[in-house]
Structure formats: C-alpha cells, structure tokens
Design a protein that fits this description.
By secondary structure, this protein is an all-alpha fold. The protein contains 12 helices and no strands. The chain crosses the membrane at residues 7-25, 31-49, 56-74, 80-99, 106-124, 130-149, 156-174, 205-223, 229-249.
C-alpha cells in the first residue's frame, strides 16, 4: 500500500469520525452512542497513518480495550464482559511484533495455546454456565493446522476433517447427548479427504463413497425411524453410481490399455 493511499484512508477515517460525532451531539447530546464507531475509525486511521506497524498494533489494542471497558462501565457495570476481548487485544500485537515468524508452526502453536488457554480460564472461572470456550478453541486450532500442512493438501484434509469431527462430537455430547446428530456433519466432512485421496481413481472413489453414503442412510434410518425401513430406497439409487463408473469409465480404460 503506497503512502498516498494510506494518508487518504487515514484522512477519510478522521473525517467520518468527526461527522459521526457531530451527528451524535446534534441529535442526542446526552448519550454518546458513537463511542464504538469512533474507536474503530481511530484504530483504522492510526493503523493506516503510522509507518511503524508494531507501535500501531499496540495503540490499536489499547484503544480497543479502552473502548470496551468504557462501554462496559457505562452500560453494564455489573457484568465485566470486556474480559472476553482481552485475549484478542493481547494476541494481536504479539502477532504483529513477531512478523513473518507468525507463519511458523512453533509460533502458531504457542499463540494458539495462549489464546485458547485464556478463553478456557474465562470459561472455567468467569462464565461457567456453558462450555462456550469450545468455539474459540476450535477456531484457533486451524492456525497451527494450516501452518503445519499448508503445502500438503491431503494431510491437511485428513487433519482438518479429524478436527471438525472431533469438534462436533464434543459439541454433540455437551448439548444433546441423547441424539447423535454429529453423523450429519461427519458425513459431509468426510467427502473432503476422500475426494483428494481418490481423485484419480474414480471407481475406488465411487465404491468407498457409495458404501459411506449407505452406512449414513442406514444410521439416519435407525436413529430417526427405526420402525420404518426407508434407507433401502436411496441406497439402491446410490449403487448405480459405482456400477456406472465401472462399466463406462473403468472398463473402456482397460480396453484401450490392452489395444495399445
């Protein structure tokens, strides 16, 4: 980004902030409802205007936390929700300060552990009614996974699928343990690694996916309406997939191979 564009964006943010503040004071001077947008614009203008991004990241985090604390104390002082923003405000300058090292596996693992542990502690000691830290833990897990398997798409698909299935399995056990709904996202996710591993083997891919689909249909049939067997009808339709692949793709390839 060139300097002229940075100055333009910074000036635009400041101009917009002045406009919003004027509208706020002219319409409702007793309540400053533009605190949040003014803070966002201030962070953006400081980020665009300052050449030293490390200092800008610290200033941005300080403004973010200051704004959240101010709004929290003004609107709901009995519940300190600003603590949920604290891990983000701490991790952001760390990532900027280490620079390109953030792309390394070690940095990704360490920062992800720091971020996840912060929300896990908040969940255990501050808000214990529900295991909500599962969601930021799941989100942060993708950072070390992507850094570890960025150039290995098959391994990344396998590890990512395992991570997603594990997430839904835990979520299923926490929310509705009496109903095994995790089979639905599991069935959808398994197509990701299977399509990569067997992309050049259409018949094997069709066979494995057909079996997987039939198992999924039978499972849904058993879990939802065990007294009524309906899975045989879509299962019969699915079997036409490997059958057609075998006779229209595999067999012609074998014939052409023998002719040559």
């Amino acid at each position: 980004m060139n300097k002229e564009l940075q100055n333009f964006l910074a000036a635009g943010c400041m101009m917009t902030g002045i406009f919003l503040l004027g509208v706020n004071l002219s319409i409702h001077s007793g309540y400053l409802f533009t605190i949040a947008p003014l803070a966002v614009l201030t962070c953006a203008s400081s980020w665009f205007f300052m050449q030293n991004k490390r200092r800008a990241s610290v200033i941005t985090s300080v403004i973010l936390m200051g704004t959240c604390i101010t709004i929290n104390m003004l609107e709901s002082p009995d519940y300190w929700w600003f603590v949920y923003v604290l891990p983000i405000a701490v991790c952001f300058p760390i990532v900027v300060w280490i620079g390109s090292s953030a792309k390394s596996r070690t940095a990704a693992v360490l920062i992800s552990i720091l971020f996840s542990a912060s929300y896990l502690l908040l969940n255990l000691f501050f808000e214990t009614r529900f295991f909500w830290s599962l969601f930021p833990l799941f989100a942060m897990g993708w950072w070390p996974l992507s850094c570890s398997f960025a150039h290995l798409p098959k391994r990344f698909a396998f590890a990512g699928s395992f991570w997603i299935i594990l997430f839904f399995m835990v979520l299923n056990g926490i929310t509705t343990p009496n109903y095994l709904w995790m089979i639905h996202p599991t069935f959808a996710v398994l197509w990701w690694p299977l399509s990569l591993y067997f992309a050049k083997k259409p018949f094997r891919f069709a066979m494995i996916c057909a079996v997987m689909t039939i198992v999924y249909l039978v499972s849904v049939n058993y879990l939802t309406t065990p007294n009524r067997i309906w899975a045989v009808f879509p299962a019969f339709a699915v079997l036409w997939w490997p059958l057609s692949v075998y006779y229209f793709i595999t067999v012609p390839k074998k014939r052409n191979h023998f002719r040559t």
